[in-house]
Specification:
With 635 residues, this protein is α+β, with helices and mostly antiparallel strands. Helices cover 18% and strands 34% of the residues. A hairpin with a 4-residue loop joins strand 18 (208-217) and strand 19. The protein starts with a strand and ends with a helix. The structure holds alpha-D-glucopyranuronic acid. The site of alpha-D-glucopyranuronic acid has 8 residues, from loops. The site of alpha-D-glucopyranuronic acid (GCU) has 8 residues, from loops.
């Protein structure tokens, strides 16, 4: 059965409501008047990559609009040449901790021959909020710096000629933005890098084009495909669809689907099918080479397009308090990781990704938590190829730690911004075999009903777009094992995600024993993952000497021995709990953290198993040996 929907004008301003169309039971997110587009790893579409030097100027006084910096012929010759992808914080010392607005201007040409096609601008990450002008015309506003979004710019381009794209970027936060402000004096908790820190491309496709491809599989060859075709034209169209599956070695395995669709003008039509395939090689951390290619080609009056994604046949599921992967009991050897390094800051260059993946492999991990925001899609591609499972999350971070922040949880705007980023994240990342779980927040004050309501609505939205994957959020631990007593929301999760720093911020490391038992007693039918644990250390620092305040009226010496002790004591205790299915230390590598002004290296979170420049601390070796033992048990 095929249902169609008709959409109205281009570049609609940012709506205040989430617009979701059900096309034959397939939810399609509508943003700026067009459907949200799946990210394809291969495409026949004509693309212009706008990476390179852009003109840049910070705007601390917010003069840019009044002085019309968006005008086509505005003279930006004395502006700074800023590399994109890039963050302004690492371009100049004086911009390192600049929070506010910055303007980017880019001249580019588009060829005449794409005139009449459907042309989008696709942005993968502009932090945190952006306003766009093209050739002096204001297009729209987008809030959220970590997910892909796109606009139909077909009507605004100078074809065969020069165009000027202007983006005003802003890193100021408010109580209802993501990441949210908790209170004016409270730092974020990582570095508020600002700028166009991921790729921007101009993409031209036929006016009849595939906008959504959602694929679910299991390790026994089941494949379920839902596709939605968009007709961007004012005329209806018919489209010939072909779906092919290629083996990991590149040879054609099978044509899975052939069909003809009739799409009304400005409309959407869905196709879907389900098959059980023979001779499938399951994807897993020990067999990441089993990546298949799923290709969809569409032939219509407006042209031919072929697009493809890499998929894996795998199954990740919780059963009672246990975790199963591809039908076998499994355990997550995890790590938290921020997108931050001393050379490119947040930018995930090929070299950064390659190096960090190699270090994850050395650490013997099979799971990474993208603390606390959707990561660069190229990182997820690398996790698919390396066989590292991923939990990816939205930066709904520590909401409720002030009265105003708690009030914002009641407000529609915070829900809107959270749900929109959640949908963008799911629709962008859902086809990755490495992505096994979504998280809708970290350490919000989930003792309160308003936070519980916010979480419940977000979990429902996640399940609407992806009924398959488990969903969770991380809870924090209060002293004296009272967490289970006050925690009223964690039961909404498919797995209890516990951030605990016993022995660092307060109490003793041994108390993790009772804490986990109490948590299990409160949620006896839920698996538990220790989603954060650890301690700060400076490479080579010996015990003793000056103590540094860490909060909760505690001070620590930041010696490697202290960090090591926390792991030596807690890892065996945590692993001994049959209901615990994963351990995820905080954190892969030290990172810039505006909260840590008292640390031995100020404004650096020093809980890394590696230093900022990726030197191994003693704890790295201990954790990797511990994980190697577990690996033998399960792989
Ligand atoms: C929290 C939080 C992290 C933070 C860490 C820490 O649990 O989720 O973002 O950096 O603890 O205290 O270092």
């Amino acid at each position: 059965m095929i249902l169609a929907f008709v959409l109205t004008s281009n570049c609609e301003p940012a709506s205040k409501e989430l617009i979701i169309r059900e096309v034959d039971g397939v939810p399609v997110f509508i943003e700026y008047g067009i459907p949200y587009f799946t990210r394809f790893q291969e495409t026949s579409h004509y693309q212009i990559d706008l990476s390179g030097l852009w003109k840049f100027k910070i705007d601390p006084e917010n003069q840019g609009e009044a002085e019309r910096w968006f005008e086509q012929d505005f003279d930006d010759s004395d502006w700074f040449d800023h590399p994109v992808p890039g963050a302004w914080n690492i371009q100049k010392k004086e911009w390192l901790d600049y929070v506010g607005a910055g303007w980017y201007r880019k001249k580019f040409k588009v060829p005449e021959f794409i005139k009449g096609s459907f042309v989008r601008i696709v942005l993968d990450g502009v932090a945190f909020h952006s306003d766009l002008w093209l050739n002096g015309i204001y297009l729209t506003h987008h809030s959220g710096g970590f997910t892909r979004w796109s606009l139909d710019i077909s009507p605004y381009l100078n074809y065969g000629d020069e165009n000027i794209l202007v983006i005003r970027v802003d890193t100021q936060r408010d109580y209802d933005t993501l990441p949210p402000l908790i209170k004016p004096s409270r730092p974020l908790g990582w570095w508020a890098y600002g700028g166009i820190h991921r790729q921007v491309i101009i993409e031209s496709s036929p006016r009849t084009t595939l906008c959504k491809l959602a694929v679910d599989t299991d390790h026994q060859g089941k494949i379920q495909v839902k596709g939605v075709v968009y007709q961007s034209d004012n005329l209806p169209a018919s489209a010939e669809i072909k779906v092919r599956l290629y083996e990991p070695d590149g040879s054609l395995k099978e044509t899975l689907y052939k069909g003809i669709l009739f799409i009304p003008a400005k409309g959407l039509k869905a196709f879907k099918f389900e098959r059980i395939l023979k001779g499938i090689k399951p994807w897993s951390p020990s067999h990441p080479e089993n990546l298949y290619k799923l290709e969809v080609s569409i032939k219509s009056e407006s042209g031919i397009e072929t697009q493809a994604i890499k998929i894996g046949f795998r199954k990740f599921e919780f059963k009672g308090t246990e975790l199963y992967f591809n039908g076998r009991e499994y355990f997550l050897r995890g790590i938290n990781r921020h997108e931050d390094n001393p050379i490119t800051g947040p930018v995930q260059s090929e070299a950064v990704i390659k190096k960090d993946i190699a270090l994850l492999k050395e650490l013997r991990v099979n799971f990474v938590r993208t603390a606390h925001y959707p990561n660069d899609p190229n990182w997820l591609d690398a996790c698919d190829r390396a066989g590292i499972l991923v939990e990816t999350e939205i930066p709904l971070y520590q909401v409720g730690w002030s009265f105003k922040s708690l009030r914002s949880a009641e407000k529609s705007r915070l829900y809107f911004n959270s749900a929109r980023m959640l949908i963008e994240m799911i629709e962008r990342d859902r086809n990755h075999p490495s992505v096994v779980m979504w998280a809708v927040g970290d350490e919000c004050f989930s003792f309160f009903p308003s936070i519980r309501r916010l979480y419940r609505r977000l979990i429902e939205m996640a399940k609407r777009f992806d009924p398959e994957r488990p969903v969770t959020f991380a809870i924090f631990v209060v002293p004296y094992g009272l967490t289970p007593f006050f925690e009223i929301s964690a039961g909404l999760c498919d797995v209890i995600y516990v951030n605990q720093y016993l022995g660092w911020y307060f109490r003793t490391p041994e108390e993790v024993d009772q804490l986990l038992d109490k948590i299990h007693k409160k949620w006896p039918d839920k698996p538990v993952i220790v989603s954060e644990m650890g301690a700060g250390a400076v490479l080579g620092k010996k015990p003793g000497g000056k103590l540094y305040e860490v909060g909760y009226s505690n001070a620590r010496d930041f010696s490697e021995e202290f960090q090591l002790k926390i792991y030596q004591v807690q890892l065996p205790i945590i692993k001994s709990k049959p209901f615990v299915v994963g351990i995820v230390p905080w954190v892969f590598a030290d990172f810039r953290d505006d909260k840590r002004i008292h640390n031995p290296i100020p404004q650096m979170n020093l809980k890394g198993l590696l230093t900022y420049d990726r030197q191994k601390k003693q704890a790295f070796y201990l954790v990797s040996e511990f994980f190697a033992q577990i690996e033998k048990e399960y792989e």
